[in-house]
Structure formats: C-alpha cells, structure tokens
Amino acid sequence: MSSGRQATSALAAAAIVALLAAAPAWADGKVVRDGNDVAGPLDIKSATQGHAGASFVTHTVSTFQPFASSSLVRRTSFTFQFTSHNLRGFTKFVFVFWERGRLRALVGTRTRLIGTAGVSRPNSRTIRVKVARRFLDSAGYGWIVASFVPSGFDVIPNRNLVFHDLAGPTISGLHFPDPSTEASATPTFPVSFNLSDASPRPSWQLEWRPAGSQAWSIVATGVGNGSHSAQIAGVQGATYEFRVRATDAAGNATTSATMLVSVPLDDSNAAFATAYTGVWNGGNDGYLGTLHWATPGTSSFSYTFTGTYFAWIANTLNPMGGSATVIIDSVATTVDLSTAQARLKTVFEASLAAGSHTVQIVPLTGATIIDALVFR
Ligand SMILES: [Ca+2]
Ligand SMILES: [Ca+2]
What we know:
Layout: H1 3-14, E1 31-33, E2 44-52, E3 56-63, E4 77-83, E5 90-99, E6 102-108, E7 113-116, E8 118-123, E9 126-132, E10 140-149, E11 152-156, E12 162-165, E13 170-175, E14 188-196, E15 203-210, E16 217-223, E17 226-233, E18 239-247, E19 253-255, E20 259-262, E21 265-266, E22 276-277, E23 281-283, E24 291-294, E25 300-314, E26 323-328, E27 331-336, E28 345-365, E29 368-370, E30 372-375
Antiparallel strand pairs: 1-2, 2-3, 3-9, 4-5, 4-10, 5-6, 6-7, 8-9, 10-11, 10-12, 13-14, 14-17, 15-16, 15-18, 18-19, 18-20, 21-30, 22-25, 23-24, 24-29, 25-28, 25-30, 26-27, 26-28
Bound molecules: calcium ion (2 copies).
One calcium ion binds next to loops.
C-alpha cells in the first residue's frame, strides 16, 4: 500500500474521533493516562508531550500490551492529532504505520501530506514521534493520539485536550521612567510591566545593572499573568539598564528589550559646587525638596561632563516662569519655561556625540529654575 493511501486511510479513521471539549492542562513533559478499556494490542495506557530543543516536539504513546511495528499495516495504525493554539479543530496529523520494512511517520493536513516526522520505538509498548515545530502552531496546540484497529479505536486523553505550550510569555506595557523624575521626586522610583501567557502563573524576574557593566543582577521576582510593578532604590546620578525575563510553566522563556533609566543629580549635589555663578536663590520643592532659581542678569549655570546625553529637570509651576538659554558647546537653544506647567518636568534634553561637552543654562526672561540634571 502506498504511503498516500495508508495515510488517507488513517485520515478517514481519524475523522471519526470527535473533537473533545477544550479544558487544557499545562506543563511540558506532561503524562496523560488512560484506562484498560479497549480490547486488543493497541489499548492505550499513556501518552506524553515534550520539547526536543528549539525546533522539535516529541510525543509518545504507550499501550498495555507489546506490539510489533510490522503490525501497523492497513487499518491498524497510530494517529497523533493537533489543533492550533485556540484548541478548535484538528488541523495537523501525524500518521504512524509500517511500510516497506520500516516504521514511518507522515505529517499531513486534512487534505494533503506535508512532510515527515521522526519515529522510534523506545520499548515494545511505546511509539515515539519527533515533529518539527514548523508544522505546528508556534504558540502551542492541543493534541490527542488515537490507535486504530479493524474493530475500532482507542484515544487518549479521553476527556480534555492537553495543551502543549510552545510560546514564552508576552512582556508588554514596559514603563521605566527616564529620567526617574518622570515618576518620582526621590532616587527611588516605580517601574511596571505586563505579562501574558497561555499557561497560568509564569514566573518573572526583573534584572538590572549599571549602564556599561556586564553582569545582570536580579532586583525583583514574582509569579503570574497581568501587571507587575516594583520600587527601585536607585542612587543619585546613576544610570541603569533593566530587562524583564519571564518563563512559563512549560519552560518557554522570553526576555524583554533593555530599558535605560537615569536617576538625576539634584540641583544641590556637591558635584555642582562651582557650577552656579551670580545670584541663585533656594526653593524647597521638587526632586529631593530642593530648587535653584535665578532671574536674568549675571547668573548662570555651567558644567562640563563626558558623555552622550544631557537633560534638565525643572518646575514650571512658578508664575514667574519665563525662558532661558541652554548653550551646549556654544550652540544655543531657547527653552520656554512658562508652558505645560508641572513639577519634575524635563524641560530640555539633548543627545550628543560621545565626548566632553560644556552645558550652560542662562536665565533669559522671568525666573529660571533648576531642580535636577542628568549627565550620562
Ligand atoms: Ca506560554
Ligand atoms: Ca531638586
């Protein structure tokens, strides 16, 4: 009998197996058991699912009695049946049968054959197939396996499809304030993100490292789908990289993009001891409860740093808010401090070529407030 006819015969037999109610179970390596309920050598005892590296999955089916591979001819065979991740309808099949002196496994849709699968006999009661993931839904699938003999069939699981989860958790809604003053008036700031996975209770870990270093450290861990947040105790003037790593119950892992967060230096930081010239007044609001402010005249702020980024955080609630000139390496920009009134507002930022840069802030009209600064 040709492969096509053997598989077509198995396909017709498979069609008599009704689609089972969807109530998935989880965890890779799951074993499903069946009762001693069908007479004959292909009475199924158990079946398993598993990952085989990044490109293959494995399924086994074991019977109560031993059987010869050469007995799997004509209307005697095993068929593994797979749904897509929504568990509706079997869309892919692996037919196992004996042909021309060897055991074969063909992969098909309802209408045609699309490839082959690996097949082996771990013991005299067990068939093992190794199926390329490219034939299956990359998000996971539901499955059953049936044995067919001329007098009938057996199927496992009997009641509910088993879900084989192949996709790592989706990590979305990453909120990492940069600079941290977008979300906090102290060096401790909140971060949040969202996890979504077909399997319940994915585990996650939030990792961080000082920007430019190699090793990641775990800063928070947890479990579960949905939104998660953590308070990060940063240090004034530091820049950190963050990432989220999440692993589902089946062992599928996902790593988020890397997020950068700078914790500003306060306007009153000792680093700026010689940066202010002229008359600057103090205020007690904003980041760390301190402000410097000045009006046009002889006052200015000047600071030289090596890096690629500068940001100025101010308080624009002041009714005297006017404008200022920011001069970076002699390139001047006028900054309006009277609109979009807010505390802890990033009023100016610039990405710069790597190297040494001198930043000046010069009051132009009204009051100019410096609350915090990022140099990185
Ligand atoms: Ca998953
Ligand atoms: Ca401040």
